[in-house]
Amino acid sequence: GEVCTMINKKYSEFLPSMQSAEDLVAQVEGLANNIDLLKAGIENEVQRDLNVAVAEFTELKQQLERDTLVLSVLKKLQEFDTAIKECSSALLEKQYVTAAQQLEKARSSHRSLESRRGFELKILKALGTELTVQTQNLIYHLGEEWQKLVVWKLPPSKGSSSLEAVVLSELHLHTVSPQDQDTAVPPVAAVLQALAVLGELHSKLKDFGQLLLQYILKPLISHPSLQPVPEEQPDVFILRFRSQEFALDESSPMEVFDKIKLVFEVLHKHLLNVPLEQPGEGRKEGRVTLAELLGELIWEELSDCLIHNCLVNSIPSNSSKLEQYKEVIESTEEFEQALKEMQFLKEDTTALLKYACNVDSHFANKKCQDVIMAARSLMTSEIHNTVKITPDSSVALPELPDPGSGDHLKMHRPSNLVHNGTVNLGSESRLSPFTLCLPTCRISSSVQQLVELAYHTLLEATASTDLCCVQLFDCVRNIFQLFYEVVPTYHRENLQKLPQLAAIHHNNCMYIAHHLLTLGHQFRYRGPGVLRNGAATFVDLVPGFRRLGMECFLAQMRVQKGEILERLSSARNFSNMDDEENYCAANKAIKQVLHQLRRLGMVWQDVLPVNVYCKAMGALLNTALAEIVTRIAALEDISAEDADRLYSLCRIMVEEGPQVFTPLLEEDKNKKYQEEVPVYVHKWMTFKELMIILQANLQEIVDQWADGKGPLAEEFSAAEVKSLIRALFQNTERRAAALAKIK
């Protein structure tokens, strides 16, 4: 019974909740139907109206954009038109700045019209033309005004900046505004500002700057006698020039700076001190003075001119004057400062001052240039102007101060080689006073001057700053290297043709080599440390110079030897002397050779050092004797008459040969050298022996041979003696016996 009750209870609770669920389902279905109806309504009607509205809106928007564009174009056209009209009326009233500004406005309107894409206006072209016409019109008016303000009175010979032309030039500035006229803006400023606005100022200023350089600034730098004469009148300022009668050849930088400064001061006062609004260009505050603009245009050229035509000349040419150069440096600084105050120069410009302060380097450059120029002209001067040097002649050198003046230098006091020629090697031994001396000879005076130039330049170097010292030292090395290159080439023909010049050149080279040995050493303990480390030497150049002298002289010797052999070749081999014609030819050849040697003996006399002279003449005489011996020894048949004639020809050589030795001017002193001929002539004894053979009988020849121990055997081989015996004597038993003894 209990179970039934529970089931009933649950059932009666279940029925009502099921009822309410069914109601809910019915409601939801009704709602869903409504939604479907609504959706269909929206899709059919509202959507269609909405699409129409959007299309209308887009069309209206495009219409608006078109209208806005047309409106803005019309506005720009109106702006353009107004600007052009304003410009014209401003121009009539000479309101140049306003006119220029209006023109620029019109130009910017025109520019923005041009930039519209897809909007081509026929009218644009016409507007462009109008703009150009107005601009040119304004520029023309401004040009006229500028010409009234700045008037150049130039001499008829245009383009000439000679002194005569410049004295006639004048610059008139009508920029002084009369007192009564109280205009807001002085006409100058207005004209310039308008030009600036139009972007035309630059070219006007450039022309002005060029005239200023050509007729005023540069002439003031290059003509010391020229003086600027400024003159102020109530309504015009005039700059004239006058030429002073007595002016120096070169004006000091101080004077030049003063003149240029005066010109800038008056220009600044009457023309350049105009502040301008610079359109664009992003300058600070956009203000700039005319002076600055002009400065940018001409300063580079002006400073170049000042350096090359004024400062360069003021650089001293010897170190003692370097001290006084401080004055130039100070005035250069003041000059630059004055131009900066007038705003002509920017604050950081220092080209001139830098140049002036770098005086040491410029001094060295200038000195080196002068030295090299002097050296070059010495090298290209005549070789044959000579001076005689003797062992005791010291070069005209600057007396070198005592090198032991500084304490730290006491330990190595060099001996002063150039002057006394003796070198002290300690007490136990002394070199001969002539160990480091040149023998007496002649050298070109130009070479003596060249060596003096080298000494003086080195002396200058020791008194200079390190930088300068090194430059001058290198310069001296360059002189000698230049000699090495220039002289043999420049004088080539003469050195080949003229034996005397070849000898002088030989001496010149030896003289230079001699000085190069000690040149660096003498300056080593003086002057800056750069010379002290031993790098300052010329010794490495010595072998080259010796070789140069030797080669040239040996080449000349070869030429002379060639001529001797050439002359002897016409002696018909010294054969058949019994034939008169042959004898004459041989005689003539020998006479010509002696004549040639005599002439050489004269041109080398007093030129070559005696020992070189004797060696050279000895070698040439030897060439002649050796050739004669060879020719005679080669003969196959010598008759008695031949032998006599050959002997007489040889006697001429032996008698007259030594007389060509005349190394010295004093006749009597030459005897000694003529007696020493056998020392210098290698084949002398051979020749004498040959003469003995030509006169001897068979027995005498055998005696002279003395089993290969006699004097004849010293000079000739057995074969040569046998050959001569066969030529001189007929084939007899006595000859055969004699020949047998020669072995």
From TrEMBL:
Family of this protein: Belongs to the ZW10 family.
Quaternary structure annotation from Swiss-Prot or TrEMBL: Interacts with NBAS and KNTC1/ROD; the interactions are mutually exclusive and indicative for its association in two different vesicle tethering complexes. Component of the RZZ complex composed of KNTC1/ROD, ZW10 and ZWILCH. Component of the NRZ complex composed of NBAS, ZW10 and RINT1/TIP20L; NRZ associates with SNAREs STX18, USE1L, BNIP1/SEC20L and SEC22B (the assembly has been described as syntaxin 18 complex). Interacts directly with RINT1/TIP20L bound to BNIP1/SEC20L. Interacts with C19orf25 and ZWINT. Interacts with ZFYVE1.
Origin superkingdom: Eukaryota
An individual GO BP term: cell division
Protein name: Centromere/kinetochore protein zw10 homolog
Keyword RNA-binding: no
CC terms in the record's Gene Ontology section: endoplasmic reticulum membrane; nucleus; RZZ complex; spindle
Coiled-coil regions listed in the entry: none
Topology of this chain in the membrane: Peripheral membrane protein
Family matches, as InterPro entries: Zw10/DSL1_C_sf, ZW10_C, ZW10_C_2, Zw10_middle, Zw10_N
Keywords: Acetylation, Cell cycle, Cell division, Centromere, Chromosome, Coiled coil, Cytoplasm, Cytoskeleton, Endoplasmic reticulum, ER-Golgi transport, Kinetochore, Membrane, Mitosis, Phosphoprotein, Protein transport, Transport
Domain spans labelled Centromere/kinetochore protein zw10 C-terminal: 436-566
Domain spans labelled Centromere/kinetochore protein zw10 middle: 142-379
Xref: PANTHER family: CENTROMERE/KINETOCHORE PROTEIN ZW10 (PTHR12205), CENTROMERE_KINETOCHORE PROTEIN ZW10 HOMOLOG (PTHR12205:SF0)
Principal location listed in the UniProt entry: nucleus
Source organism per UniProt: Illadopsis cleaveri
